[in-house]
Specification:
3-stranded antiparallel sheet, 3 domains, PCS-like, acyltransferase, metal-binding, glutathione gamma-glutamylcysteinyltransferase, 7-stranded antiparallel sheet
Length: 503
């Protein structure tokens, strides 16, 4: 059935005051003079209209993230790194947001995933005086912004739940400026702060929880450079529960004698698709980032990511993880999700398995099930100035034993490889990195159930953030912070202490 077109709505006034009206301009000028419009100028520079009727939360957040000059670390379009609604999908699939909107807790989750500091308050956890204090504080600074979740009915506006940033505050009349991201519907407008509180102090029927407000600012430490966590895939709830609740219980009930026992216990019960929990932030991409025409800034950014990955791979924990995966065939056979199909080491492993199948007189994808590649290396050779050639080497095992495979393959995109060297360290994250990052991200109390004191001391040395290089330490702390916060934000079970710091 066809729907009649609508061109904007008349802003009910009172209670709202149109920002562009004479009265709205007066409030604006007086607020500037009183120093409570400092955050306005950054926000207005990145003011945007939500691209979908249900994208108010995504538009509000992308606007604030850009105003805070937080680098998303990944490209939007062309060479540009920029927050757009289409990139805010780590906590809820975009098609689901488009159909149903997004809950308060998920917007807070998105802010964390994007690398911002967020403090979220539901109205039943706060007071109108607290809200006023935070609005005033953020309005006198351009380093903090408030996003409000409210019901439009309190302002006699059409519609129900809505998100928008607060652009300023007029202390004399106790009014807040709402920069409504639904600009196709209503212009920016001033509203009494107490009435805005009433609009927030309503229950979202979709979740049964109160609405509220959140303070978004930059983290004191750098956001994730290489890793972040994602609850885009539904399996993340099971994975997070396993890592934070089941692993400590399992370790209490099992008699572990060394680090290998600890890791074997953790890995043997991993839920399916556990690697969906890890999302690579601006990972080193073969097609995009291996371009010879990269700018100096882009090369510097990639060098930092390579350094973080190198630091991961030089930890003692990574070496233990790698050793365990290289000698145990059960994990390789039963955990296909340990591999990302588009990273170089796993492509190399696949090539070696295919080669082993061909040599054994077997071909086709079914033959891959019979082989497991324990070790791979990609070597680049150049002779007499000729174009480099690539050789993929690996040790492949099956029921008949182990064999070495060397295969000449078509040229691959650039990776860290010294011509003629015996080794080649890829800069693409792989399954070993996923497992190492997850283990580092677990709270220290995860391991407290281990009764063998010697094992516990050795484990603490391996996972202690104090022993890590600064960049990797920041990466791990950010992951741990996200893991705990994501658990609070899971759909239908947002904890009452959502606002509380996680570290």
């Amino acid at each position: 059935m066809a729907m009649a077109g609508l061109y904007r709505r008349i802003l009910p006034s009172p209670p709202a005051i149109d920002f562009a009206s004479s009265e709205g301009k007066r409030l604006f000028v007086e607020a500037i003079q009183n120093g409570t419009m400092e955050g306005f100028f950054k926000l207005i520079s990145y003011f945007q209209t939500q691209s979908e009727p249900a994208y108010c939360g995504l538009a509000s957040l992308s606007m604030v993230l850009n105003a805070l000059a937080i680098d998303p670390g990944r490209k939007w379009k062309g060479p540009w790194r920029w927050f757009d609604e289409s990139m805010l999908d780590c906590c809820e699939p975009l098609d689901k947001v488009k159909a149903n909107g997004i809950a308060f807790g998920k917007v807070a989750c998105l802010a964390r995933c994007a690398g911002a500091k967020v403090e979220a308050f539901r109205t039943n956890q706060s007071t109108v005086d607290d809200f006023r204090k935070y609005v005033r504080a953020c309005s006198t600074s351009d380093n903090c912004h408030v996003i409000s979740s409210y019901h439009r009915g309190a302002f006699l506006q059409t519609g129900t739940g809505h998100f928008s940033p607060i652009g300023g505050y007029h202390a004399g009349s106790d009014m807040a400026l709402i920069l409504d991201v639904a600009r196709f519907k209503y212009p920016p407008h001033w509203v009494p702060l107490s009435l805005l509180w009433d609009a927030m102090n309503t229950v979202d029927e979709a979740t049964g929880l109160y609405r509220g407000f959140m303070l978004i600012s930059r983290l004191h430490r750098a956001p994730a450079l290489l890793y972040t966590l994602s609850c885009k895939h539904e399996s993340w709830v099971t994975i997070a529960q396993y890592l934070t609740e089941e692993v400590p219980s399992i370790l209490k009930s099992d008699n572990v004698k060394d680090i290998k026992d600890v890791l074997s216990i953790v890995f043997s019960s991993l839920p399916p698709n556990f690697d969906d929990l890890i999302k690579w932030v601006a990972e080193v991409r073969r097609q995009e980032d291996a371009n010879e025409n990269l700018s100096q800034e882009e090369r510097g950014r990639l060098a930092i990511k390579e350094e973080v990955l190198r630091q991961v791979q030089e930890t003692g924990l990574y070496k233990h993880v790698t050793d365990l995966l290289s000698v145990g065939t059960s994990i390789c056979r039963t955990k296909p999700t340990l591999c990302h199909v588009d990273n170089l080491p796993n492509i190399a492993a696949s090539v070696c398995c295919q080669g082993a199948g061909i040599l054994a007189g077997k071909s086709g994808s079914s033959s891959l099930d019979r082989f497991c590649c324990q070790e791979t290396c990609v070597r680049c050779y150049r002779a007499n100035g000729d174009r480099p050639v690539t050789v993929v080497s690996g040790k492949v095992i099956n029921g008949n034993g182990k064999q070495g495979i060397d295969m000449l393959v078509p040229s691959l995109a650039k990776h860290n490889c010294n011509s003629g060297s015996d080794s080649c360290q890829t800069i693409h994250p792989d399954s070993n990195d996923v497992l190492t990052a997850l283990l580092f991200a677990l709270p220290p109390e995860t391991w407290s159930g281990i009764t063998e004191e010697k094992v516990l001391q050795e484990l603490h040395c391996l996972i202690s953030t104090e022993n890590l290089p600064l960049m990797l330490q920041e990466e791990v702390l950010h992951l741990r912070d996200q893991l705990l916060f994501l658990k609070r934000c899971k759909d239908g079970n947002v904890e009452e202490d959502l606002w509380a710091p996680t570290s």
